[in-house]
């Protein structure tokens, strides 16, 4: 059997703990007229700068020559890796750079990027 002294102490502790916990209103207690609390918005101060810089960089990179091919001459290796193989091949063909390896096979994307970067460094 449970000792009555222990039982009374446990009961008192449970009552004190229950009184200390704040009660949350049940979902049925909320009226339909109550609006939910607005969510906090993230600050976009840093994003604004990045967005304007990206727009300017994209505008420069998106310039096309008379053949309708994007001008990729000023791109870094990281930026060039975001271009498609089709775009890289079109640009390199328009500049007269070979898009085939020594064995005559078409270069993979990494090879095209290396060719692009090396051709742009030769001009500078």
Can you put this structure into words, describing what you see?
The longest helix is centred in the N-terminal third of the chain and has 17 residues, at 4-20. The protein contains 5 helices and no strands. It is mainly α. Helix 4 (85-94) packs parallel to helix 5. The chain is rod-shaped, with a radius of gyration of 33 Å.
Task: Name a few traits of the molecule.
124 residues; 51% helix
Topology:
Elements: H1 4-20, H2 45-61, H3 77-80, H4 85-94, H5 109-123
Helix pairs in contact: 4-5
- Silhouette: rod-shaped
| Helix fraction bin | 40-55%
Structural class comes to: mainly alpha
Main beta sheet: strand number and arrangement?
none
Order of helices and strands: HHHHH
Query: Which regions contain 5 or more consecutive residues with pLDDT less than 50?
Result: none
How many extended strands?
Answer: 0
Measured between the Cα atoms of the first and last residue, the distance is 93 Å
Mean pLDDT, rounded to whole units? 76
- Total helical elements: 5
Strand content: under 5%
CA gyration radius, whole angstroms:
33 Å
Concise account of the structure shown:
With 124 residues, this protein is mostly helical.
